[in-house]
Amino acid sequence: MSEPETIRDYMGAFNAALEVGLRSRRRIVLEVYDHLRQAADEELGRGETEEEAQRRAIATFGSPEQVAAGFQSGRLGSLDRRLALTATRLDVWMARHPWGGAVLRTALFVPAAALIAGLGLAFAVPDLGLSVAIGLVGAGAWMSLYLGAVARKLRGRPESGLRARIVAHDPERLVLDCHPLGGPAANGFWMGGLVGLAPNVDFGFLLWILMGSLLLALLAHNCVGDDETRRRWFNFRREHPWWGALVNAPLFPSVALALVLALPAPLGFRLALALAIAAMMVGLAALRCLAWNAHEREWIEAELRAPRDR
Amino acid sequence: MSESLTGHLDLLLLAALRPGPAHGYAIIEELRRRSGGTFDLPEGTIYPALHRLERQRLLESEWSDATGRRRRVYRLTRSGQRALGEKAKSWRSFARGMAGALEGAT
User: Fold this and answer.
1) What is the complex's ipTM, to 2 decimals?
2) pTM score
């Protein structure tokens, strides 16, 4: 592999070689970038061209692999490594095959969707106390599984190359990764609370409309927002994980499905609506995957530029 | 020179921060200035060391916008000041011993 000659190429190689958790990664990447940029600016002040200034800054800093190796924690067990490798391959595959990735992502929601949908139907049980109890137990069981999975996923997992970049550009996952308890706990609040409210169909329908509107607004924002707006939103959610997680909750299709199933409409209509929502989620997930591919470099650059722009 | 420096990097970094808080680039400049250019490590090697010292609670750091550019600024903790004193004392003792042993050797 040829040695990088620009700061941008150096940061790409460094980020790919760095195997640390996400919280440390962001800080390290920003520090290294800041150092290289300052060194290059000093060279510019001495009359060098931009290209030569960057080349000199890189030359005195050390190779990306060597510097990245200095940050390795070496705390990972073999099982974690295997899990991490599997997760990495899965994410890389999903990023490269957006439609397949979207279907896979949706499939991951199916057990939860089935559970919550079942809970929604359980509200048809005349005994309100019993249905609420079923809802709470179901939501609790789902959240326990979810928390366990997230905690497992996060435990010292190395973040190599493409996967790290994918994660770094996905605010929802960033919130979850940086605040493994805060995000899921907030989601649990929403899920349990909304399912519990669903027996009141009018209120449930109103909530569904509100959630749908918010969902569409967020997705529209993701699709058309410029990099600066996205960066602000990205940072807001990173720095305010509880609010980020609360806003994230409507993105869970399982909640939407549960509320749809609680609508006062014929079963065929409700199922068709649920299927339409599932199809929409597949399409939107595909768009997200496509956006990751298309904007990967821009995201990195926007993030790296951020400290200088402030 | 850089290889022999690596083992003493922690002491050098703690000493460079004794005058006051500084960010990574300024720490390297300070080391170069103090050593008259003798201590010229690959610049990237100091960041892992700074992070390690922070994990050991000898340093603490925070983002600063003071110069118009956001930077991670490091400062010595009380433990860091104590460690600096101990390491410096140990180093001086070692250096005196070495000087004595090498006296007249060249």
Assistant:
1) 0.85
2) 0.48
Q: Is A18 on the interface with B (CB under 8 A)?
A: no
Tens digits of per-residue pLDDT, B37-68? 777 778 888 999 999 899 888 999 988 876 66
Q: What is the 3-state secondary structure (H, E, C) of chain A?
A: CCCCCCHHHHHHHHHHHCCCCHHHHHHHHHHHHHHHHHHHHHHHHCCCCHHHHHHHHHHHHCCHHHHHHCCCCCCCCHHHHHHHHHHHHHHHHHHHCHHHHHHHHHHHHHHHHHHHHHHHHHCCCCCHHHHHHHHHHHHHHHHHHHHHHHHHHHCCCCCCHHHHHHHHCCHHHHHHHHCCCHHHHHHHHHHHHHHHHCCCHHHHHHHHHHHHHHHHHHHHHHHHCCHHHHHHHHHHHHHCHHHHHHHHHHHCHHHHHHHHHCCCCCHHHHHHHHHHHHHHHHHHHHHHHHHHHHHHHHHHHHHHHHHHHC
A309–chain B Cβ distance below 8 A for any pair: no
Closest-CA residue of chain B to A73: B52
pLDDT band at B21; cut points 50, 70, 90: very high
